[in-house]
Records
---
Amino acid sequence: MTVNKPSSNPKRALSKKRAALLAGCAATVLLTVTACGGGSTAGTTTKDGFAQAPQKDGALTVWVDATRMEAAKLYQQLHPEVKLDIVSYDGNANGSNYLQTKVQLFNRTNKGWPDVVFSSQNNEASWAVDAGFAAPLNKGLIPESTLGQFAKGANDVCTVDGTVYCLRNDLSQAVLWYNAPLLKKFGYQVPATWEEYQKLGEKVAKKHPGYLVGDAGDSFTPEIYLWASKCGANDITGPKAVSVNTTSEACTKMAKLLDVLIKNKSMSISGVFSTDFGKNKADKILLMPGPAWFGGAVFKDTLKTPAGQIAAAPIPQWQGDNAPSTGNVGGGTWLLSKHSTHLKAATDFLKWVTTDNAYQGEKGPGFPAYAPAAETWLKGQDASGYFASDLSALSAASSQVWPGWGSGKFSQEAIWAATVKPGLTQGKSIVSMLPAWQDSIVKHAESNGYKVSQ
Amino acid sequence: MTLSHSPSGSAGRRPRGAARQSRAGIAFVAAYVLLLIAFGILPTGYAVYFAFTDAGGTFTGFSNFVNTARDFRFMDAVGHVALYLLFWLVSLVVFVVALALLLHRLASGTMSKSLRFLFYIPGALAGAASVLVWLFMLDPTVSPVSSLLGMLGFHTFGEVIAPGNLPLLFTIIAFWTGAGGWIVVIYGALNNIPTDVMEAARIDGAGAWQTAWHIQIPMLRKWIVYMVILAFAGGAQLFVEPQLLSLASVGVAGRDYSLNQLTYDFAFQMNNINGAAAVSVELLVVSVSAAAVFVARSGFFDAD
């Protein structure tokens, strides 16, 4: 063996690591060159509230995640005359920002944008408007009569200065899921207030140790509990302004409740999608506050809870609160590209996918944001026989989402995951971490260009 | 970079051979130089241009550097990368040299061959794939060594990836994927030490320790320096390990951990390509300076 030969290996190892960076830089060079060559805005016409590119024939490009693939395929089946190019991507799940990354690159190359795109995040408008990607929808593309039938507040996350830039796919209002036969067997009542909820948790810890009244280990934990408690951690007050206060009474009393239940182990801190939860806790769920999509995505598909067990009740309220309030976890959105050269086809697709009963009413995995489709959806869920109760709690909650928690450019879920979750694992209390949480939100908001008031 | 310099051909045949050799040499180097320019020098120049301008292309001096350094995550990321580099370089030098010496002592034979192969296997996995292997290894619920993790006091993935454990975890992952190739290289270098030197040492009564300490390691110096320079440059660009860990842990650990992740955030989430370029230029300057120090102090380019 000579010395020269193997030395090609470490070099390759280096170049492998460096390749990502270099290739990225090189690609940027090439892309920018193309952008300089092909960048012309000539031939646009201003219509529907924005400058439209010259319209052409050709395939409509639609980006969807794995779950929404069914929607695109169904549309193709029902509209065989439309040339559809369906592209699958991660749907920006967990704030992966794939779409944003790609749009930034397409903006440099001046081509490549999808015509219609689904995102599982509901804060896309916060960057897609600045990036010149999202087309205004309430200036002519989608009629007011259609927009008016979305659930109250459903498209707030899509609205910037009164203009709607995306349509909500589904709502993710939080309700109290529970295992009806198990609750009956143990002789407990569904709690109506948070005080009762806490008492129940303390009782469960003593009498039925191991069973759970909730989970506080997910990155969206604050959106279930603290949002429902009207904690002002994320009040987006303007396009670039946010008010943050995580140590108010509304925040601390919910944090204290969580701390008590975490300490007596009636609330898990694994997270419902963790391998640990699936293996050790799936059959120990008594109560579980969670968003609308928990019904299908968590109980039915991930934890494989058998039919006839899971039921939904309204999320508890604090004693003395007169108006019900709940939180919201995600809920996808559909965006239409300003750069589309097939606006008519794109608009048709967008309208169909968000409002048509054929998908939203009959096949949609989550609670449709479009109210008439939601009615059909609820009937379908009742008819399927999976749930042990009707899901009327979901429709009631759809208009009770507390409006004081917004969707900024920075991900609240990412901040909670990095700031609070490690402490929880080490046994720190949530109350003790509220100031650190505030500090982290403020820093992230400021570095994203937000003006923060505390 | 070559170390083997066995003279080829006798003096008499040298002119023709040398001419042919130099033509072949130019052809090899030319291909490399072209790639170097296209994928090394041009992008670097472009990054430097970006680093000193704003989005509109106006010269802004050092403001991109100042603004990114003021980001609240910047100093944390510098600390993380520095700590990781310390762990990674020390473990690399100590264990790679030790393992290569051991391997060399085993002399030839099947044992040595199969060990060399074993060391090298993890390196054959692509970077991201090997990190994924570790994500399974480190999750007590699915890990094949979960009982070992349990003995160390780890019962959930969350406990394993506590912030304090990260530098060590990344070092273990990087060592597992990267060290095998280096063991083979250093082993090759050991084989290149002339047998008469080794024999002389043995006749003088030097034991294994003395031979290693006084003969082999000094003669490996250049190789170790070479390894440290490349490992430093690679380690400073830490990205894949924390990025995948942050995806796997849904953001609990590893988000915005390293400087390279920060540049990625600047470029694609905050739409600040110029700031990202500034940080990448800083990384380049640090790596090149470190390499320069090592080269100067070790007499790397001195002829033997």
---
Amino acid sequence: MDAAKNPDLHLYDIDAASFAAGGRTILSPLTMTLAPGRFYGLVGPNGSGKSTLLKLLARQQDPAQGSIRFSGRPLETFGTRDFARSVAYMPQFTPPAEGMNVRELASLGRFPWHGALGRFSADDEDKVTRALKQTSLTALADRMVDSLSGGERQRAWLAMMLAQDARCLLLDEPTSALDLAHQVEILALVRQLSRERGIAVIAVLHDINMAASFCDELIALRQGRIVARGTPDRILDPAVLDSIYGLAMGITRHPQTGAPISYVL
Amino acid sequence: MLFWGAMALLAALLFGQRVGQQWSATHPGQTLDIDRVILVYGLLPRAAVALLAGAALGLSGLLLQRILRNPLAEPSTLGISAGAQLALALATLYAPALVEHSSAGVAFAGGTAAVALILALTWRRGLEPVSVVLAGMMVALTANAAGAALILANGDYLFSLFIWGGGSLVQQGWDSAIAIGWRLAIGFCAAIVLLRPLAILGLDDVSARGLGLSLNASRFLLIALAVWLATTVVAEVGIIGFVGLAAPVLATLSGARSLKQKLIAAPLIGAVLLWLTDGLVQLVAGEGGERVPTGAATALLGGPLLLWLLPRLRLFEWPSLQESRSAPRRAAHPWRRIALLGLLGILASVVALSLGQGLDGWSFASGDLLADLVAWRLPRVVVAAACGGMLAAAGVVIQRVTSNPLASPEVLGIGAGAGAGLAAVLLLAGIAGLGWQLAGSSLGALLALIVILAIGARGNLGPERLLFAGIAMNALCSAILAAVISLGNAQSYRLLGWLTGSTIQATGLEASIAVIGLVVITVPLLLAARWLEILSFGPSTALALGLPVRPVRNTLILIAALASALASQFVGPLSFVGLIAPHLARMIGLDRARAQLAGAIILGTLLMVISDWLSRMIVFPYQLPVGLFASLLGGVYLTFLLGRGVHRHG
């Protein structure tokens, strides 16, 4: 990958980072680099350490050993707000945004920039308006977040992350609570935003076919180790899928696009 | 099994040592041997009462927990004991013949009234555990405050009642042991007979009805049985907390699986627990130590036990709490509404200062009379208002930091913690100045809050468990208070006054302290409203938005603890303003953090000014303590809240 050859293109450098909880190793020492502007999908069976890896990248948890650098700087050297200006993270279960409308939720994305006491400037206002526009929420801006459908609510949280103006979005199963149509809608939106704004996205995704059709690159984990990494075409291969899921799977082609689709044998 | 054998052996050893001491002092052959009398009519019945009362409470707790499917139900958390005690105090004052005739009957009536009230309050919520325990706590606190007010009004006459209220096992004969003994026997037999309905009642309603059980009849019968057992103990020896809670849980933890095993194990464990505690109390206290009531000691041991148990308890999942009620409509112009509230507050203060009842009926004071009256009334109105504002601010902060709409300084035991701190200072320093008292209560409040939140963070407690932790904290601190109050000296009266929340003696100095406190505490909070807003999303989203969660949360907690300590210093621990005011603010459409905070503070002052005024007017020319009054108002609101279904944002 070209990121490995050109140090300017490093977004994340993960050097032998591991994580353990309660005496159990959740993530074995793991080394890899991630490039800016790409859409990465983290896939693998339950308990493979996908979410944990994402939390380490988001600084929600500290690695037990090893180190992680973001654009060349060790994570621990970032201030909290400083880091939030570069990296936005969405947990698997977004909390209820009680008593808040869509615009107010998106405006909270400006917190890392203006802080607790700073003024909400015209620039902040512009960023929020743009984020709402890019997530097609302008018409819903005055609706209460709690009254929205699941897909709309997820878009509102995305708008908040866009308003944060970060270079990297970390999404933990952003589609897990959505029906098929909204899954496609959200992932297509994320891919589009990544292209338009040139921001990197690292998303934990459950559905391997869905991940393959939207991501630039898939990283597959099993039992806390990376077992495969590559373009969707390389991952969607019977032998590779067997190594990820321990399950005999076959590959067919999409009748129209020709993209690979996996199925259980 | 082995463990309990060892515990029983330890208790027996303690007992044996006491008996041995006493025995060696007796003089065989002498007919009038005082030491022999102490042995036969003091020590032996005391042990018997400890065993029997412990068993009765264990059985009562097991029944209640099973029927209500609530692992935290027991006579003291449901307010049964407090209700019985209040009934006894009232009867002692106003119908002494009744107490003479049957103290157990009076206690039973009080306990039944408390349970009936709680069941009525929570019936519509399907007796959901959190509501039941919350209602129980409210009933217990209010009954305690009313009892304290009675004692204050009647002086020494009732003070012995309070000592007894702490659960003193001192005996002068076999009467109590016999009274508890035969009721325990009847209760146990009845429980065995009702074993099958009891087993079915542990299932959910639909399955129970599907099995052909007349739910309510058997439920009420068994509840009455449990209340009867518990109130007998109250009538004979006073309130003994936590045995009824701990015995069934410990029985389960020590491997009693079937209901029949539990029915045998829980009373046995209860008996051993109380016997052991009593033995320890006698050992620690030595000869002159009958002053620390055993009931207070059980709470001292049981409180930490409950806190330790909480993360390990398996709670029934009650879906009713999860469903969200439609949010109240947001105000179009929140600040206009707040300004209106402010005007209302000023108006209420003016009325509270000028309108009053005199010898010749109601009148508005004006001119010189007003100037005279204001000198008397102003300090207490100002103190009440400022404390209301501080409690409301603390309530908003705590509800938002814990993402728990039912959390508040009162519910989480922070007010009671302040009381324990105050008690410690008074105990150590005798008559301490206001500064030391404030330092003590602040430290106590802070410690209580830190312990609660540390437990919450470690066990990853949901909103319900956090409340249970608060209830344990409340009981623990109340036990410390009861122990200190039962010393019966000058400090006791200070603490009793504090418990009822009296602003009667408020001075100008106190008023200025309260106002300064209000300003110092609320201004930074209003500025930091963005923190509150983001924190209510929970720590991980807050961190992702760049909020340094830990320092911010600690700062806010410190502020909330200070505010509640300062406020409870003047108006007592139980006003419930901190719980209500944030809800009211939300209900009138103030939902953003800053607007909610401002609205809640004004509402808090308004509530307290009204409470203060009512407490002066209702039984004119006498005055009721304002804290007691505010807690009654709070109780009414809480009832309303529980009846509608709880709104949560966590």
